[in-house]
């Protein structure tokens, strides 16, 4: 049996990612709380993982004690700016404590400024549909960066603007629950304006900052390779889903299947590329979907499916995503800002982790500058409209008692972080079913 270790570069960031609304609990002043109250989610977020009540301390201990050297978290706009004219200094102090907590544990912080949730007052003004949002987001960003810059230099302006806009404004399962493709593209345009304004503001306040955003990038393939219609739909959907932000950041023009927008201020506004990778889609022509320009999508056939059939385990997809990033933006530092799988029984997670990291390692060996990996997530958290039905944590969570349950993947990830690599021995121990795929002789 071969014995080998796939090593990662020195200084590689190994961590997990979380988001305020998903872990803090008692977040009642934002659009997602309202969405939950209106009955659009399978469960309510409630106390979540109770980080606002202080349990971030024990979870950061867990992360640090198991070898992680970084953590990506988000701050909640509606807590920091509860009304248009007020700032909550206590909330900012709490976030300062959390970031100090990471520093004390020897962990690098990455701070996301917007992760899906909006203050209710902003929603009442039309949210990201309204152009007025960009200066408002900039003002909030300045306040946050001023307060937290002592503890963070790595900033993520907006998490998955494409998911926010498409699930909220086309699919309709995120707030505000619309089905309007044109409007969703306006929202992405305003998110670009907000991102660009925040990018410049952060650099003004902290010259050494590294600023980017996190894109949910989905590789896509036509369901039937030889079908011209499926191929056309694949291209339309691919550009509508993936290319809004990247096109504008490359050229100052946001391209979309329903028209282009000039956003010159967006050009060049990223210091690293934040990649959220989960899975690959197949795309086909579907007459019943005029609202999505006659395209539909699903998981590749016969794929290794996750517990809730939420995603297909396609590790080559992360390699191809990194390759696409390096072709689009040669030499830009790349950070995997999210990757993970819902799996309450921890049956798939170990192999999902091993196979994806193996592909990241391959990418690193093409000299594509991958600097870090944040697994989604540290502990089970509130998964949006899917509530508590999906369990993405390395640690499980008993929502009623707040008890954490240590899944085998905790130990596996610990060994990876400590070794700064992934070895044949580890794979043999935690996911022998993929040993031959990862270590062929
Ligand atoms: C991503 C989100 C994150 C989490 C994972 C599973 O799209 O950014 O908040 O819900 O999916």
Count the beta strands: 17
The percent of residues in helical segments reads 40-55%
What's the N-to-C terminus distance?
Answer: 8 Å
Strand content: 15-25%
Radius of gyration from CA coordinates = 21 Å
Structural class: alpha/beta
Strand order of the largest sheet: 2-3-4-5-6-10-13-14
Q: What do the pLDDT scores average to?
A: 98
Describe the overall structure:
By secondary structure, the chain is of the alpha/beta class. Helix content is 40%, strand content 17%. Helix 7 runs parallel beside helix 9 (181-205). It has 16 helices and 17 strands. The protein binds beta-D-fucopyranose. Beta-D-fucopyranose binds next to loops.
Topology overview:
Elements lengths: L4 E3 L5 E5 L2 H4 L7 H7 L13 H15 L4 E5 L2 H4 L8 H16 L3 E7 L5 H5 L8 H16 L5 E6 L1 H11 L9 H25 L4 E7 L3 E3 L5 H15 L1 H8 L1 E2 L6 E2 L10 E4 L4 E5 L9 E4 L17 H13 L5 E5 L10 H16 L5 E6 L19 E4 L4 E4 L1 H12 L1 E3 H7 L4 H4 L3
Helix pairs in contact: 3-5, 7-9, 8-9, 12-13
Beta-D-fucopyranose binds next to loops.
Keywords:
17 strands; binds beta-D-fucopyranose; 16 helices; single chain; alpha/beta; three-stranded mixed β-sheet; eight-stranded parallel barrel; 441 residues
Question: Would you kindly provide a brief summary of this structure?
Answer:
The protein is of the alpha/beta class and 441 residues long. The protein is built from 16 helices and 17 strands. The longest helix has 25 residues, at 181-205.
